[in-house]
Amino acid sequence: MYEAEGVPRGRGVWRYKDLLPRLGKTVISLGEGSTPLVELPWASESTGAKVYGKLEGLNPTGSFKDRGMTVGVSIAKGLNAKVTVVASTGNTAASMAAYSRRAGLKPVILLPRGGVAKGKLLQALAHGATLIEVEGGFDHAMEAVLNLVSLDEAYIRRVYPLNSFNPYRLEGQKTIAFEVLEDLGEPPDYVIVPVGNSGNIAAIWKGFKEAGMLGLPEGKPKMIGVQAEGASPLADAWALGLREPLYTHNPRTVASAIRIGRPVNWQKALKAVDESRGAFLKVSDEEILKAMATLASEEGVIVEPASAAAYAGLLKAHRIGMIERNSKVVLVLTGHGLKDPDTLSQISLHARIERASNPQEALEAIEDLARE
Ligand SMILES: Cc1ncc(COP(=O)(O)O)c(C=O)c1O
What we know:
Layout: E1 8-9, E2 12-13, E3 37-39, H1 41-47, E4 50-55, H2 65-78, E5 83-87, H3 91-102, E6 106-112, H4 118-126, E7 130-134, H5 138-149, H6 153-158, E8 159-161, H7 167-173, H8 175-184, E9 190-194, H9 199-212, E10 222-228, H10 233-239, H11 266-275, E11 279-283, H12 285-299, H13 305-319, E12 328-333, H14 341-347, H15 359-371
Parallel strand pairs: 4-12, 5-6, 5-8, 6-7, 9-10, 9-12, 10-11
Antiparallel strand pairs: 1-2, 3-4
Pyridoxal-5'-phosphate (PLP) binds at residues 63, 89, 91-92, 164, 194-200, 257-258, 304, 306-307, 334-335.
C-alpha cells in the first residue's frame, strides 16, 4: 500500500507512507484500506464525465471510518488507555468498537436514541461496546464527548476520545486520496464527498495537498461536499457566501450518518473547499433515495443513504453546469448499504417478486423473462 514513487530525497525517495504518522510497535489493524475504485457507467453516461466510485463500504466494518480508527486506536493502545469513547451516528461506533476490542480496550459509545441504522447498532453491540443512548440527536451526544475532552490530559489518556476532532483519525482517512492517485495515476478533476461532521472531506483534501509535496500536479481536485437538505449547515452558509455554518437545530434526513446540525470540523472543511475551489451542495431525501436505488439497480453497488448523497450531488452538480464534459470525477461511497436494512427495504418496495408453487412454475417464470 501507498508505495507510489515520489520525488527523490537524500538517498531514498519519498513515498505516501512517509506522510503517515509513525505508530511504533503497537499497530491495531484489520486490513483496512485498498478499497476498489470502480467506474460507474450509468453516472458517466448521464453526465458526460468519467465517473468513479471509491467503494469504502468494503472496509472491514463497512465504512471509511476504519482508515482513521486503525491509527486512533493504535495511539490509544500506545498510551495505555483503558476506555475509548465516541459520539456516533453509527459507523464510527461500529468501527471503534471493533478496533478497540481487538486492542483489548473498553469501547463506550454515545448514540442518538432512535437515530442509528439497525446494522450499525448491532455491529457495535456484537463487538461488545457499552452503548449510552442520548436524547436529542447526535449533536447532544457530541456535546458530552466535547465536555470530556475539556478535562485534564491524564484523564484523556485513560479515557481516550476517538471522534474526528482527534487528528489521528483524519491522518488515516487521508489515505483515500493516496489510493485514488495510485489508481488513476493523476488527481481527478472533482472529488465528491458526503459531509456530516465534516472531517472526511478535510482529511481527503489534506491527503491530496500533501501528495503535492511528492511532486504531483497542483490545482486538482476540486472538493465538493454534499449535505442533506434537512441537515445542511455548511451548504446553506456556502449558498449565502457566509464564512460560518448556519447550524441546523433539529437536523432531519433519511441519511442518518450525516444527520448532523453542528459539524465539529467545519473550519477545516470550509478551508478544504475554499483552497480547492470546490463547493458545498445540498440534496433532498428524495434525491438521495433515488440515487441509492440507481446505484443498486444500474451500477450494481449497494451503499447507505449518506453515500448515495454523493451520487445525488454529482447529478445536481451536472444539472447546474458545475461538471465539465470528460472531466474525471471520484465519488467517495462512504458506507455499505447492508448496514441500513430499513432504508434498503424502502427502495426495494417495488421490486418484482414472482411466485411459484412448484419447480415447473419457476421454470415458466424464467422462460417468460427470457422472452421479454
Ligand atoms: C457513511 C458515512 N458517510 C459520510 C459521513 C460523513 O463523514 P464526516 O462526518 O467526516 O463528514 C459519515 C459519518 O459518520 C458516514 O458514516
